Amino acid sequence: MPAFRQVGEKQLPNSILFMVWSPKRDLIALANKAGELLLHRLASFQRVWSLAPNEDTGKEITSLAWRPDGKIIAFSLADTKQVILCDVEKAEILHFFPVESLVSCMHWMEVSEESSTLTSFCNAEDETSHFLPKLPALPKSEEKSDEVMKLLGDVRLNILVLGGGSGFTELYAYGMYKIATLAGVVGTCRSLCLSSDLKSLSVVTEIKSTENEPEITYFQLDTSLLSDCLPEVTRMARKFTHISTLLQYQKLSLTCMCEAWEDILMQMDLRLTKFVQEKNTTTSVQDEFIQLLLWGKASPELQALLMNQLTVKGLKKLGQSIESSYSSIQKLVISHLQSGSEALLYYLSELKGMALWKQKYEPLGLDAALIEDAITAVGSFILKANELLQVIDSSMKNFKAFFRWLYVAMLRMSEDHVLPELNKMTQKDIAFVADFLTEHFNEAPELYDRKGKYFNVERVGQYLKDEDDDLVSPPNSKGNQWVNFHQNSTPLKESPLLFPYYPQKSLYYVKRIMEGVIDLCLQKPAEVIGTSVKQAIGMPLYTIPTSTDALPRLFELPSLWNDKKSGMHYIVFTMPEISPCKLYIMRKATDLSRSVSSGLVAIDLGSLLNRSIDGSAEASRYSCLDARFFDDETLTVVLKEAVEEEHRGRILAQLPLSPVYAGEEEFVLDPSMKLDQQSGNIPVQSVVLENQWRTLENMKAQYVAVNGIRKVSCVVS
Where is the Anaphase-promoting complex subunit 4 long domain (predicted)? Predict the structure, then answer.
């Protein structure tokens, strides 16, 4: 291996808490004390983008992980207790979810490729495009809806593992859908590693106790249910992930609808506010308009408002803009809400089919009854959206009649010529105008709308309110033959085939019910899979002195690594208190039924480099500051001399592991004693480095992050 070449060096304004290399490209993600997330390129270490902390997401980043395809970064925040998935190309937040406990470490792994069952699954995945239309992009955020789809990524299962305080451990399939909540871990997680064959999860935790110093412990949990049912888990997680993205899509569509509705209010209010302020008569706006409608003569104030402030031209413009807002709400309901709900129904029905295949999916906790409830809830939501469409229709009719009438009245006031076809006004039209006036200009306190001061679009707006209150003016179903028939027939009332209908509730309320029910049917598998995971090994490693300096936790050893080819978990750690010049490597098989030779080895760092200075052949002793796996055969370490002198820098070195495992000795653990008490019995190997090291000049190196695939490392002091 050639000596190392330094590519760049950079001084950063804030101290770095975390650094992780992208698994696929020469990019490194850094999180700093200020709460920023930075992405740097290897070449000259230039910054690609930075994501500043904001109020909604949070300021304290506590852990970082890349999705195995390198397209998404996940990071967790302490102050808001959220996990956020961020798009690497555009630095956009695609998805976030709350977690119960503070996340102290995360690991994102991908299932190894050999499972051939996945190919048949990929074909099934493509079938959906035959049955479902492509979801239309959302108007204002065209990128967003495609982004939501980007979250799905590869079909191959990848799992984001989160670990936190007091044994909190959760697995999220595709980084979005919670697939298991694990018990069986004690203490605060320091690092995690789920093996790529899904057979076991290794966790290193720190257990604090009141009397003693904190103790570092290693756990290995048996996750064989996931590996045994891999095709089923993948298929289920995939469907659930689709459902989560669709719920996000519905949420964004509703937000767009609310914006369009607020536009209408703002525009009318602006015109009317001044008029109401200047008006000294006691009559209300509504009375003034009705007077004009009945007698054809306006009071001087109203005339001044219409002629001077609104003007004929302004009226036309106002009419057009309000009409376009209405029709954009209508479009959103038809093209987005309805097609999103249809897709939801499709995936839920597929899930229900899976749940009925009991021998395969019952161990994973799929419950057909819960999914049935979810399907019903989506049906209710579709009904509510249809009702909103009808309300918009009738509102638009009245609204057009009103504007047409007002236009004619204004032409008369300005003594312009009125075209004969505009002049015709039937009794029906007059009724529409009167309807519009009573509906939109009422100033009765109980109907007072918080958003519109003198004008309200309450009929449509009430559906878009995120509250539990009943609708102010629910649709009138008197004389509706179907409603009467349904209410008088007992079998129909109790029929499970009809979707329940909430005539008194808003669209938002029904959406919340739907989300709650879907969440319920998504939660059950996480509990069932979680209870199947059992602790196989729990082994205290060593105690650590309670440190005074608050160093960021990510960098501390032990570090974990999963060797995919040989199916091993590696744990690297040091015991600075007992033997500062040794580095320990423990390895365990991911398959818990296998045992491993030389399970625990110590490397003596004393005789690594025999270099002489000034001709004197003194050998210096080294202690290890940080060690990370470069690839399956190599360990990258940062070393410092036991007695540090001013003119010597710290050392970055590559340790080959093959000589370490050449020894025959086995270490036999005495379960009655702690590991650090029997450290003298651990077989010691010495390794000599030829040219695989370099001194880091003028730098108090402390931590290193490496990526063996791209052959890069980054050192922080």
Answer: 218-416
CA distance readout (Å), 564 to 79, 110, 527, 548, 607: 36, 11, 28, 38, 31
SS3 604: strand
Q: Which residues of 529-566 are buried (b: 16+ CB within 10 A; e: fewer)?
A: bbebbebbeeeebbbbeeeeeeebbbbbbbbbbbbeee
Q: How far apart are CA 105 and CA 103, in angstroms?
A: 6
In 3-state terms, what secondary structure has residue 253?
Answer: helix
As to burial, measured by CB atoms within 10 angstroms (0-12 exposed, 13-18 middle, 19+ buried), residue 26 is: middle
Do residues 175 and 70 touch, judged by C-beta distance below 8 A?
Answer: no
Q: Above 60 in pLDDT, residue 448?
A: no
pLDDT digits over 217-226, tens only? 888 888 888 8
Q: Tell me: the pLDDT tens digits for 86-95? A: 888 888 888 8
What is the reported pLDDT for 61? Answer: 87
**Cα–Cα distance measured from residue 406 to residue 404, given in angstroms and rounded to the nearest whole number:** 6
Distance of CA 424 to the CA centre of its chain: 58
Residue of 527, 615, 522, 593 lying closest to 176 (CA atoms) = 522
- Closest residue by Cα to residue 656 from 633, 632, 640: 633
Strands (E), 165-311: 169-173, 177-182, 188-194, 200-207, 215-222
Return the half-sphere exposure (C-beta side, CA atoms, 13 A cut-off) of residue 605: 28
Distance between CA atoms of residues 650 and 41, nearest Å: 25
| Phi, psi (degrees; rounded to nearest 5) at 311 | 60, 155
Give the pTM: 0.80
Q: Which residues contact 65 (CB under 8 A, 6 or more apart)?
A: 20, 73, 74, 75, 106, 107, 108, 160
Closest CA to 447 of 261, 438, 289, 263: 438
Residue in 569, 600, 598 with CA at minimum distance from that of residue 221: 569
Could you tell me where the DSSP H helices lie in 534-606? none
Per-residue pLDDT band at 549 (split at 50, 70, 90): very low
Contact status, residue 196 vs residue 110, Cβ threshold 8 Å: yes
Residue 541 phi, psi (nearest 5)? -95, -60
Q: List Cβ neighbours of 81 (8 Å cut-off, separation of 6 or more).
A: 98, 99, 100, 101, 102
Interaxial angle between packed helices 230-278 and 285-295, expressed in degrees from 0 to 180 and rounded to the nearest 10: 70
Could you tell me the sign of the dihedral formed by the alpha carbons of 430, 432, 435, 439, in that order? Answer: negative
**pLDDT higher than threshold 90 for residue 561:** no
Tell me which DSSP letter residue 412 carries: H
Structure tokens of 244?
A: 């989560």
CB atoms within 10 A of CB 174: 28
pLDDT over 80 at 172, yes or no = yes
**Token code pair at residue 642:** 């036991």
| Terminal CA-CA length for the chain | 25
Indicate if the pLDDT at residue 426 is higher than 90: no
Query: Tens digit of pLDDT for each residue in 611-670?
Result: 434 333 445 677 777 777 777 778 888 777 766 665 566 777 888 887 777 776 777 777
- Whether 302 and 292 have beta carbons less than 8 Å apart is answered as yes
Q: Which residue has the tokens 């001084």?
A: 11
Distance of alpha carbon 523 from alpha carbon 232, whole angstroms = 17
Number of helical H runs and strand E runs in the chain: 16, 27
Query: Is residue 533 scored above 70 in pLDDT?
Result: yes
Picking from 526, 502, 503, the residue whose alpha carbon sits closest to that of residue 514 is: 502
Q: Taking each helix axis from N to C terminus, what angle separates 338-356 and 368-413, rounded to the nearest 10 degrees?
A: 170
Long-range contacts of residues 459-463, Cβ cutoff 8 Å, at least 24 apart? 459/391, 459/394, 459/395, 460/261, 460/326, 460/329, 460/388, 460/391, 460/392, 460/395, 461/261, 461/265, 462/506, 463/384, 463/387, 463/388, 463/391, 463/506, 463/507, 463/508
